[in-house]
Design goal:
CATH topology of the largest domain: PH-domain like
CATH architecture of the largest domain: Roll
Helix content: 10-25%
Radius of gyration: 19 Å
CATH superfamily of the largest domain: Pleckstrin-homology domain (PH domain)/Phosphotyrosine-binding domain (PTB)
CATH class of the largest domain: Mainly Beta
Strand content: 15-25%
Distance between the termini: 44 Å
Number of strands: 11
Shape: globular
Number of helices: 5
Length: 250
């Protein structure tokens, strides 16, 4: 079906509409063989609070952006190559329902659909697209994923020293390797994580010591992206995660 749609006028028109909705700030999306599979609004757990984001699933990429005017205008376009994507279901807990993790080497985050049926459809379509891409390219699935950040609301004290209490003055920071919420003194060091940035990024002392000595396995065991569903129950109103402007977040 995808092959039949690839060069159809209807598909070309649909992709052109998506491009126009992002305006001049968005990247061109029309390339030979690209097909728009589906679209919809999902709730993305951002650093400050959950926010509605418009998602577009193509046969080779996942695109999302901020909603400025529903169905007419979006900004802050993000493009994720599907070859690098792995998804994991999240168990329902309280107000957090119908969710799954989107994990990539660069960035990982949680999204939630309005219904269980919508979640199932999104996950099935994403898995099918990823499987088809890997089958055609002969590549193997990526086993390296950026950490899903622990929500701010889950940490009243530093998750490393267990002493420093967070206040408006003593700010929360996030380790880019394990995703833990840590205080400033426990995350003064930086380390180059090429999959996430071309510059050294903030990491906690624990991960720095492991990365410096090459003991990657122990550090990876602290990555919350594989145990996100085991986190304490929270409401959609107070959960936060990585925001859409990584350079401005800690």
């Amino acid at each position: 079906m995808v092959d039949r749609l690839a060069n159809s006028e209807a598909n070309t028109r649909r992709i052109s509409i998506v491009e126009n909705c992002f305006g001049a700030a968005g990247q061109p999306l029309t390339i030979p063989g690209r097909v728009l599979i589906g679209e919809g609004v999902l709730t993305k757990l951002c650093r400050k609070k959950p926010k509605a984001r418009q998602f577009f699933l193509f046969n080779d990429i996942l695109v999302y952006g901020n909603i400025v005017i529903q169905k007419k205008k979006y900004n802050k376009q993000h493009i994720i190559p599907l070859e690098n994507v792995t998804i994991d279901s999240i168990q329902d807990e309280g107000d957090l329902r119908n969710g799954w993790l989107i994990k990539t080497p660069t960035k990982s985050f949680a999204v939630y659909a309005a219904t269980a049926t919508e979640k199932s459809e999104w996950m099935n379509h994403i898995n099918k697209c990823v499987s088809d891409l890997l089958s055609k390219s002969g590549k193997t699935p990526s086993n390296e994923h950026a950490a899903v950040w622990v929500p701010d609301s889950e940490a009243t004290v530093c998750m490393r020293c267990q002493k420093a209490k967070f206040t408006p003055v003593n700010r929360r920071h996030h380790c880019r390797k394990c995703g833990f919420v840590v205080c400033g003194p426990c995350s003064e060091k930086r380390f180059l994580l090429p999959s996430q940035s071309s510059k050294p990024v903030r990491i906690c002392d624990f991960c720095y010591d492991l990365l410096s000595t090459g003991e990657m396995t122990a550090c990876q065991s602290t990555n919350r992206s594989d145990s996100y569903s085991q986190s304490p129950k929270s409401s959609l109103n107070d959960v936060s995660d990585d925001d859409d402007d990584e350079d401005s977040s800690d």
